[in-house]
């Protein structure tokens, strides 16, 4: 067993699941039902269909499931990207509410990493909502993936139970599967961002939070920038959709502009701060 396979087996064991490829029709139907229950999409725009999963699997793409005994509690779907043979695009992953908090998502991603590396790929890419702090922490800190591009309203209108009609801004992540940071993260040695430590070294707040939780624009002039996001945007969308949209615009204008100008996200503080190295700024 190589290192990446050992890491994914260790993660799956810790989560109390077995992660494996999914190819049979009944199992693919279960993946569809799982995602449908998580996203609660409009009937004309499901995240996947059973027929699509069947075709993706047959064509050699990535469809996996996490099983607690016979029960499917998580799944992940990806397809081959460009350049051919080197990149896997991870399209959608989800975990049943009954299995949240058990690190099933981590086990799924480590299985995906092993699957890709076994096929000679060096990179997995995927998108996530930059306002969702827990996903930023998971992707950037726990997995060691790094943002590459800010994509405004990438999927257009999505009126499912998660996106809630908000603009679908996304960050495109690239996961360099063999990098030292990713190897450490997958072995349980993540490198978390520390906004307070960065501030003490002279970091500039490019987007902060008011005492009432509203976005407060700062300055993009600095070698290291700190960009805040809401502590819980999903709760905010439900309680105050207007405030959630204010955050969407503010993060797009600040973080999106920084990335477009050559800055790089180098970390995420779990308290809700992106740490950004500003190649165009001055320290």
TrEMBL record:
Entries under SUPFAM superfamilies matching the protein: Acyl-CoA N-acyltransferases (Nat)
Gene3D superfamilies for this protein: 3.40.630.30
Residue runs in coiled coils: none
Superkingdom, taxonomy of origin: Bacteria
InterPro entries named in the record: Acyl_CoA_acyltransferase (IPR016181), GNAT_N_AcTrfase_prd (IPR038764)
Protein name per the record: GNAT family N-acetyltransferase
Species, as recorded: Umezawaea endophytica
């Amino acid at each position: 067993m190589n290192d990446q396979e050992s890491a994914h087996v260790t993660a799956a064991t810790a989560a109390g699941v077995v992660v494996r490829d999914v190819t049979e029709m009944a199992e693919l139907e279960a993946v569809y039902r799982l995602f449908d229950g998580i996203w609660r999409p409009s009937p004309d725009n499901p995240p996947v269909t059973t027929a699509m999963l069947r075709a993706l699997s047959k064509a050699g793409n990535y469809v996996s499931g996490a099983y607690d005994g016979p029960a499917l509690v998580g799944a992940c779907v990806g397809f081959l990207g460009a350049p051919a043979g080197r990149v896997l695009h991870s399209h959608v992953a989800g975990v049943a509410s009954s299995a949240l908090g058990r690190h099933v998502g981590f086990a799924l991603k480590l299985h995906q990493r092993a699957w890709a590396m076994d096929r000679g790929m060096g990179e997995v890419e995927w998108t996530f909502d930059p306002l969702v702090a827990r996903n930023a922490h998971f992707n950037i800190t726990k997995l060691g993936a790094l943002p590459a591009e800010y994509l405004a309203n990438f999927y257009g209108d999505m009126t499912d139970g998660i996106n809630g009609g908000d603009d679908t801004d996304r960050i495109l992540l690239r996961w360099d599967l063999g990098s030292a940071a990713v190897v450490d993260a997958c072995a349980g040695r993540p490198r978390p961002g520390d906004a307070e430590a960065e501030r003490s070294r002279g970091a500039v707040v490019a987007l902060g939070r008011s005492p009432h939780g509203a976005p407060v624009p700062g300055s993009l002039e600095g070698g290291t920038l700190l960009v805040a996001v809401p502590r819980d945007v999903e709760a905010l969308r439900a309680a105050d959709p207007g405030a959630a949209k204010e955050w969407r615009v503010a993060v797009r204008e600040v973080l999106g502009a920084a990335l477009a100008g050559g800055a790089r996200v180098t970390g995420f503080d779990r308290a809700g701060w992106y740490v950004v190295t500003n190649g165009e700024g001055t320290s």
